Every structure is written in structure tokens, then in C-alpha cells.
Amino acid sequence: xxxxxxxxxxxxxxxxxxxxxxxxxxxxxxxxxxxxxxxxxxxxxxxxxxxxxxxxxxxxxxxxxxxxxxxxxxxxxxxxxxxxxxxxxxxxxxxxxxxxxxxxxxxxxxxxxxxxxxxxxxxxxxxxxxxxxxxxxxxxxxxxxxxxxxxxxxxxxxxxxxxxxxxxxxxxxxxxxxxxxxxxxxxxxxxxxxxxxxxxxxxxxxxxxxxxxxxxxxxxxxxxxxxxxxxxxxxxxxxxxxxxxxxxxxxxxxxxxxxxxxxxxxxxxxxxxxxxxxxxxxxxxxxxxxxxxxxxxxxxxxxxxxxxxxxxxxxxxxxxxxxxxxxxxxxxxxxxxxxxxxxxxxxxxxxxxxxxxxxxxxxxxxxxxxxxxxxxxxxxxxxxxxxxxxxxxxxxxxxxxxxxxxxxxxxxxxxxxxxxxxxxxxxxxxxxxxxxx
Length: 437
Description:
The structure is a single chain. Helices cover about 40% and strands about 15% of the residues. It contains 17 helices and twelve strands. By secondary structure, it is α/β, with parallel strands linked by helices. α6 (about 110-120) runs parallel beside α7. Mean pLDDT is about 85; it is low at about 345-355 and about 425-435. α6 (about 110-120) links the parallel β4 and β5 (about 125-130). The protein has a seven-stranded mixed beta sheet with strand order 6-5-4-7-8-9-10, with helices on both faces. Strands 1-3-2 form a three-stranded mixed beta sheet. The chain has a two-stranded antiparallel ribbon with strand order 11-12.
């Protein structure tokens, strides 16, 4: 096969650095010795015996780049490649990890996670699911070259991983994760040991968790904003509510196929509108207005790869057992100590039943109580500015574009009420005109 690939010009590049790998191997076997060149030559000759060095180990063929690479065989390759993990990861722990299967859905943030998992060799098998292909705008966070534009994201990740370690088993699902392949993804030849969910599809985000919970598979999610990491230990808590109860009442079928703008209120609910960064909040208002979708930065995505890999390793090695939501916010951890926040949030005040019909009598009662409780000295706002302000707010995304807002203005304060009743199909401007005081 080796000769055939060369004769048929299927191998354009031959990389043979096997001697250097053998040097590293014998060095790893004698860490206490200060080996000299003659020592390396003697020890390597002893290892080769009667075999030619050309026939030692394996040759790996990469058809997408037409390369033949000479490598140590699997056991010796893994020993040398993971040697610098010692003793943050012991040999016994490395062997345990080599038997683990991890599934990842979503190969934008997921690409960084998959590559970091592979580099650290946190598993022996990766299953990668994504239906999308690489676009130029993806290259702000996906580590690949322009030659891969139009190539499926799963293929891009798989090829890079196999160029790092051809002995890691990879299964790719180029149609993404869906109802037809979910059983195969989670259970083929033994169920997953851990599931990483970092996809944009809200229906899959929910349905995959139900599947993971049914199979008692832990789930890890990274949001690449404020270093937020989410852990759900369905392996230890099989009755746990998915997404910590934040997805209650959300029907996967009703949120399937939504535009990016239509997804925003649901995404905010699931990741926490009150905990995302100020810039992310501002960006959410601009989705499908001045930007196509929510932003992702390479630095945040790379951090997510590191955080997720670290947590996955400790889960798989039985060193971490909790569920929860965690933040590694670099702007908070590393920044000017006397810096002021970009925006100061106002504490929400709730004086009426959020599930009752918001009658105007209730609203006036709330406003009366507000001014009784808070001595507000506000500057009066012009009619023109009020109209501009409310018009801008109406353009903000709401689920199904129903705009369940009621506005009330008094003494320089503009109040916004969220009517949670099913019949809150209101038009803010019309109501605003009626209740301006």
C-alpha cells in the first residue's frame, strides 16, 4: 500500500521523523539519565533489533493533504505524546480516559473543545455533530484556514484532530444531531460517557438533554460569555430537571426552525438575561437588525475549550460530582480595581401578581406605591424623546413578536410592565399614547 500510494502519485509529501520520536521514547523510559548521542544510538539500535527503521512503527496516510507520515505505533505513540501530562494526569488516569467516549454537538465553540480534549487525550473516542459548513465569518473563532471554506465543520475538526493523533477514534455526523440519528450518536457500540452541548438549535438543546438524562449521561455546556460553564450530572441525579428547570414549559417542536432573532428571548431565558455581559445584552437587541446573530470571540471560545476540557476530565475520573452553573469572568478577575461598570443595573421591583391580568388600575397602584417608596427627582422628558425611546424599545425582540409590554410615564419616570398573560398581544405605542400623564 505504501509503494502503491507513491507510484500512483497519491502521496505528494513524505514525512519521516521516526528517529526523533524514538529518541523521545527512550528518553521517556530513562528520565533520570542524562543521555548522550551515543546512548540514544545504542538504545534505539537495541529496540530495532533486526528490523529496518523504515519498517518500525506505522505509516499514516492523510488523503485530504496527500501526506504520508511515519509514526510510532499506537502504544508507544500515546506514551510519548502524553508524557508531558505527568503527573497532572497519571498513566493510570490516562488509560482510564482512553476508554471514554465523548459526544459534542455544535462545532463552533465545540471545535475548540474537541481540539483541547484531543490534545490532552481526555478520551479515546469523539463523536462530532454539526450540519453546517465553514464560512468566512466563522474564522474569527474557528481555527482553520481559508482553504476549508465550504467544508463541513465536523470534517475540519476531525481532520485536525487526526493530524494531532491518528489513534483517536472519531465519528462524524454531518447532518447534525436529529431525531433520526440521536440513538446512534448516544448509544452506538456503548453509550457516551459524557455529552458536550454547544449548539444553536433550541429544539436539539432540549431534546438532547432529555436523551442524556434517560441514559444517565452527564452534560456540560459552555456559552463563551463571561466564561459561563453549565454542568448537569444526570449520571448522579437521574431525576434532575433539564437546564436547572429553566426549560420548563418549552416545547422543542415549537422552537424548532426559529430565526436567530426569534431565538433571542428563549436563549436569554436559558442562559440568564440577568447574568450575561453588558455587551452581550446590547448585542442581543441588534440580532437581525444591525448584526446577523449573537457575537462570539476567539478568546472566549478558546477559554471555553480549556474550561470544558478540565471539567470533563475531572468528571470522567470521578474527581468532581456537582451540578451547577459557574463563571470564570476574566473582566472581573483581571481588570482595573476602581473601574466602574459600563451599566448599573436597577433592582427590579415587583408589587403586583405577575400572573394576573395587568389592568391599568393595578399599574396606577404600582406607580403610586413606587413614588411613595422612592423619592425620585427625575428630569421631565420631552414628548419627542419619549416617542423615540418607546419606538426603539418596541424594536427589541420578543417571543413570536407579540410585544407583551405596557408602558406608563409619570414625573420623569418611564415604567415598563411585562404582561405574562396569554392574551398580552398588545401594541405598545397605542397603549403608551393612552396612559401618558
